[in-house]
Sequence to fold (276 residues):
Amino acid sequence: MSALRDTTIGFIGTGTMAEAMIKGILTRGLITPDKITGSGPRVERGQEVSERYGIATTTDNATAAEAGIIVVLSVKPQVLPKVLTEVKGHIRPDALVLSIVAGAKIGTIGGKLDHHNIVRVMPNTPAQIGEGMSVWTATAETSERQREQARAILGALGEELFVGDEDYLDMATALSGTGPAYVFLFMEALIDAGVHLGFSRRIAQKLVLKTVGGSVGFARESKLHPAQLRDMVTSPGGTSAEAIYQLEKGGLRTVLSRAVWAAYQKSKYLGGLSNE
Fold:
């Protein structure tokens, strides 16, 4: 039996990640479209989501909040303070509030809503195809059933990982939340390198997509450490050894580490905006 049986969900915000959640929930058959209400400022976006998934939509955040046994906060950090003011008093006392707002602290959300059944999540972009990684935590007041409901929703997006310390959420934002951007940039650079060699962009892109996808699949199946996998394809004095030498010489590890740290700092900054 689904943990979401007879549950209604109100999405405050119907952007890309909210849509991925809606799609995952409906694709898995966890609930039916008539149990979902989404709100957002743009009428045309609401119509688009409604036509695509058959859910109810509105431009009034309070209406969506009132409709949900689970209320999902899926707005930009900069507009969260305004949104919390709009929905305060419209969330039923026994509802679960599930936030995917980057950087927004549970204490801030709970304090401004005067509500304490809260789950905070950091999902990522591959959730749109059911291959996401969601890191989440919950308040002590959140019931076991509500945690099961959170797991069911996040499981529809891919894999989920519960952590007991909220500080891990900002770390997850920098590593897995922002991580797809690093991978896409690497892929783009590799495609450009292929074009520089003489491949057409179409062929270079096909080679890179298959290589990256296959490498990830092989790493997952082998369960070996990436360093061991790299050694397997790096012959002494060979092409891989020469290429890796240049990458290390260029400071790839250092630059990547700095990038992740910068994303972590930015997450905390954005959280400061939403926590004001």
